[in-house]
Amino acid sequence: MEKSLVASINNDSKFERVTVHLAAGNPWWQCGMLTWLALALPLAGCSEAPPFEVAAVQGTVTIDSQPLAQGRIMFAPIASSNSLNAGKAAFGRIQPDGSFVLTTYKDNDGAVVGEHWATIYGPDPELEQVTQVSNLPAGLPKFGRLAVPQKQVVAAGQDNRIDIQLTSQDVARYGKK
């Protein structure tokens, strides 16, 4: 006698049907097969492409023409008028020379295509004690978070170079502690 187990999985809004035939005489085989099925079904569809198109993004952050030597940068996509979901934000670590490369889904893949609001997160106070930030302009106000006042645009199908040039006045005006 043979029994059947039927499972449906949702893979990109398409339902697929998986039928597993269980041999009635061997309960250990049935248990092993059910365990395998329970582990394998959640992995179905894991190799899908990201839900939003991304394009490579690299650039620099400068304040008064000098590189911001540490911190993080975030690009938050802006939803279009016909969509509520804008996509996943991209993040990058600002290097000592002010450069950054953005990551959204996998290392250095870039940011979602479209318009973004950029936010710069200032030097980590714990790291600041270890790494002196000596190349910043004198009198620069300390900030924990700085909203970049201009929208940034990530274009499809190309390597995007986005250089963010700020002044001490921008930091004083748009920075938050």
How do you describe this structure in short?
The chain has 177 residues and is α+β, with helices and mostly antiparallel strands.
Number of strands: 15
Low-confidence stretches: 4-16, 129-134
Give me the Rg, rounded.
24 Å
Tell me the series of helices and strands, N- to C-terminal.
EEHEEEEEEEEHEEEEHE
Our count of helices gives 3
Q: Could you tell me the strand content as a percent range?
A: 35-45%
Return the average pLDDT rounded to an integer. Answer: 78
Distance between the termini: 71 Å
* Helix residue percentage: 10-25%
Q: Which class do the helix and strand fractions yield?
A: alpha+beta
Main sheet properties: 6 strands, antiparallel
Shape: elongated
Describe this protein's structure:
The longest helix has 14 residues, at 27-40. It contains three helices and 15 strands. The termini are far apart. β1 and β2 (14-23) form a beta hairpin. It is α+β, with helices and mostly antiparallel strands and 177 residues long. Mean pLDDT is 78; it is low at 4-16 and 129-134. The strands form four sheets. Strands 6, 7, 10, 11, 12 and 15 form a six-stranded antiparallel β-sheet that branches. Strands 4, 5, 8, 13 and 14 form a five-stranded mixed β-sheet that branches. A two-stranded antiparallel sheet has the order 1-2. The protein has helices spanning 27-40, 125-130, 168-174; strands at 2-11, 14-23, 54-55, 57-63, 66-67, 71-77, 90-94, 99-101, 111-112, 114-121, 145-147, 152-154, 160-161, 164-166, 175-176.
